[in-house]
Inverse folding.
């Protein structure tokens, strides 16, 4: 297979590429990435420098119709997995425009170019956040739940999901959608909760938690999510959406306390900051459809996954320091400073 991955220099895309090279060494992988602040080309440098790896990096924008069209034709692409997205809710609250441009219009442009190129399979990677929020006793989100996004980020992803549905219904374009709960693992950009708390705890700095820390997330180790995307690519039915979760619901406070315990740090480092606008209370995913049709089940328990993640960050402190400089540091200092 000649597979185009968009956004492959980001957190999930990077892990997906490494996993696919391990499981499908005969596949030829092409990574199209714009290299915005959270995209790190160095993540995959070992593959790029290996002439026999079957991996090619392509610098470009998924919103550029002529460029995407030429990539699909020139590299004779068979299938596409679209990870490319602006993904941080806090940033979308500050400025929604880039999220609409990349997440909605960019996804539509990718589908249109792929449709015109006769692509055989297109997997659009979405998020559980398109479903909105759950109450404490509500059943987990299923694919039958309506889309009720509450942030500019989730609204931009929901727009792309609806466009994917329209492309299947109108054009019979072979697109499937994946929706996943909160990911964690290696290479995650440190604006997200786990790497951010790791950095601050290691430096004995205060750990800012929104509100009272009672918001609940379902956590999935990144390789399990990547497996779900792989199964959708290989077995997923066009026109369908598939949920993936880790069966690991935890409050933000519980998660941070677990992280502090692993690091041997005191819970007195925890501080509470003003909650962000539109903060969803709870996410949980019913992945029974993916289990039934794709054979998906999460393989990494949270206790194992969080310890593997912490060890990776400890062993890759240079990577962490490099990516957390510059724009990231400026944004986070401003954002959390406003909420003290």
């Amino acid at each position: 297979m000649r597979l185009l991955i968009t956004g492959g220099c980001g957190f999930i895309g990077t892990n997906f590429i490494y996993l696919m090279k391990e499981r499908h060494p005969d596949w030829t992988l092409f990574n199209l990435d714009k290299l915005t602040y959270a995209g790190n080309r160095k993540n995959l440098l070992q593959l790029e420098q290996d002439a026999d790896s079957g991996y090619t990096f392509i610098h470009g924008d998924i919103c550029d119709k002529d460029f995407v069209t030429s990539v699909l034709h020139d590299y004779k692409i068979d299938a596409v997995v679209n990870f490319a997205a602006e993904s941080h809710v806090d940033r979308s609250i500050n400025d929604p425009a880039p999220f609409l441009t990349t997440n909605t219009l960019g996804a539509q442009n990718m589908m249109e170019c792929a449709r015109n190129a006769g692509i055989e399979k297109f997997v659009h990677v979405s998020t559980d956040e398109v479903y909105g929020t759950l109450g404490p006793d509500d059943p987990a989100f299923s694919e039958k739940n309506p889309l009720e996004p509450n942030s500019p980020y989730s609204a931009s992803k929901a727009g792309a999901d609806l466009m994917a549905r329209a492309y299947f219904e109108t054009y019979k374009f072979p697109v499937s959608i994946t929706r996943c709960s909160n990911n964690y693992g290696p290479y995650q950009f440190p604006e997200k909760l786990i790497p951010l708390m790791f950095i601050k705890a290691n430096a004995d700095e205060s750990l800012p938690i929104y509100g009272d820390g009672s918001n609940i997330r379902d956590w999935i180790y990144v390789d399990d999510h990547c497996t779900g995307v792989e199964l959708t690519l290989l077995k997923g039915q066009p026109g369908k959406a598939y949920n993936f979760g880790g069966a690991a619901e935890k409050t933000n406070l519980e998660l941070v306390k677990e992280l502090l315990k692993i690091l041997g740090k005191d819970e007195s480092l925890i501080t509470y900051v003003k909650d962000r606008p539109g903060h969803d209370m709870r996410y949980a995913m019913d992945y029974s459809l993916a289990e039934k049709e794709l054979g998906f089940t999460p393989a990494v328990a949270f206790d194992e996954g969080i310890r593997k993640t912490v060890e990776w960050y400890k062993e890759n402190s240079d990577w962490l320091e490099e990516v957390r400089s510059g724009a990231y540091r400026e944004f986070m200092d401003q954002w959390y400073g406003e909420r003290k």
